[in-house]
């Protein structure tokens, strides 16, 4: 276990109960205690998870020399927003299982999953109200909440637009823009938002936002790799391919493949999810490795890791740089064996 992992574990042990209490208080303040919405929220949250978005603001506060517990309310807000996107993602992707349990839409229905995700987004600002900060900092962070949530939604829409494209070409820049919205926003919010609440210098806030962008893409690439070569806790391997998603591996393969292999991959991506054969998914898994797409993605991960730490603004905050280094290690731990086997 790395030092950062241990630090997150200790933060979780010390403060996760407070985060969940803050969420419960927000539910009560909104008049939702005992409602179906409240029950669905409890059901989804009880499936667990790393709680990384809840603890990130607290970790940033500590790295800036502030008290971690001061940002419990913001951690609760970030956790709600992250989980709202998971509830909506599961519905939009048709995923029936999350962490070994039926997803919200599978258990309660599609309409109720939409309602829950929407409610969680609106509960987040209520949690933020409990944070003691200057009016200016609070206003900036509230604006950031709205802005970053919209970035995530825009990224999600762009993902579906990529799937629905009529062209047989795969646009690498369109993929990168989609990932920076969908994934990076969920890291920029807890990191840069925490720095704003701690009244950190503007250059540090901006550096954290940029670092979050790189770490978000890094995280998404490892997630794409994990979907094919690891264990994501979903109902079957290769779910992203079966859903027709354009992943980092698909983009990298497209740059290398001949016309015949491109056509075969495109047929797989455009097939109905229920008609996607295990044999074709297996072909893609082997082809991505054999033709260098997997190696290309792993090389890009190393580039992104360096870019996330490059800002001179971190030189005055060594604990912040160590936190970013540790986050990269945590993100890459699930594919550590894959990195070693390919490297």
UniProtKB/TrEMBL annotation:
Pfam families: polyprenyl_synt. Its cofactor is Mg(2+). The keyword Cell membrane does not apply. It comes from the Bacteria. GO terms for biological process: isoprenoid biosynthetic process. Keywords: Magnesium, Metal-binding, Transferase. InterPro entries: Isoprenoid_synthase_dom_sf (IPR008949), Polyprenyl_synt (IPR000092), Polyprenyl_synt_CS (IPR033749). Signal peptide: none annotated. This is Polyprenyl synthetase family protein. Belongs to the FPP/GGPP synthase family. The keyword Transmembrane does not apply. GO terms for molecular function: metal ion binding; prenyltransferase activity. SUPFAM superfamilies: Terpenoid synthases. Gene3D superfamilies: Farnesyl Diphosphate Synthase (1.10.600.10).
């Amino acid at each position: 276990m790395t030092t950062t992992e241990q630090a997150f574990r200790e933060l979780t042990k010390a403060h996760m109960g407070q985060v969940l209490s803050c969420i419960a208080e927000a539910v009560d303040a909104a008049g939702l205690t005992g409602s179906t919405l409240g029950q669905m929220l409890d059901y989804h949250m009880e499936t667990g998870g790393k709680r990384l978005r809840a603890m990130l603001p607290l970790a940033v506060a500590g790295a800036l020399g502030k008290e971690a517990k001061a940002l419990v309310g913001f951690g609760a807000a970030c956790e709600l927003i992250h989980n709202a996107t998971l509830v909506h993602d599961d519905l939009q992707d048709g995923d029936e299982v999350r962490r070994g349990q039926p997803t919200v839409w599978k258990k309660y229905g599609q309409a109720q999953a939409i309602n829950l995700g929407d409610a969680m987004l609106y509960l987040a600002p209520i949690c933020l109200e409990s944070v003691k900060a200057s009016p200016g900092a609070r206003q900036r962070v509230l604006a950031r909440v709205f802005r970053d949530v919209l970035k995530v939604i825009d990224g999600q829409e762009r993902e579906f637009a990529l799937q629905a494209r009529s062209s047989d070409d795969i646009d690498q820049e369109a993929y990168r823009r989609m990932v920076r919205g969908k994934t990076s926003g969920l890291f920029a919010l807890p990191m840069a938002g925490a720095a704003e609440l701690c009244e950190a210098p503007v250059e540090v806030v901006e550096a954290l936002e940029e670092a979050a962008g790189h770490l978000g893409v890094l995280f998404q690439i490892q997630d794409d790799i994990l979907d094919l070569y690891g264990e994501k806790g979903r109902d079957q391997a290769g779910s992203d391919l079966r859903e027709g998603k354009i992943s980092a591996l698909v983009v990298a393969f497209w740059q290398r493949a001949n016309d015949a292999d491109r056509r075969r991959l495109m047929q797989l991506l455009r097939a109905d999810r229920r008609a996607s054969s295990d044999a074709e998914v297996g072909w893609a898994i082997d082809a991505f490795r054999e033709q260098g797409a997997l190696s290309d993605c792993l090389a890009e991960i190393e580039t992104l890791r360096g870019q996330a730490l490059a800002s001179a603004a971190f030189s005055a905050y060594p604990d912040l740089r160590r936190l970013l280094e540790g986050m990269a290690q945590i993100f890459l731990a699930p594919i550590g064996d894959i990195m070693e086997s390919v490297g």
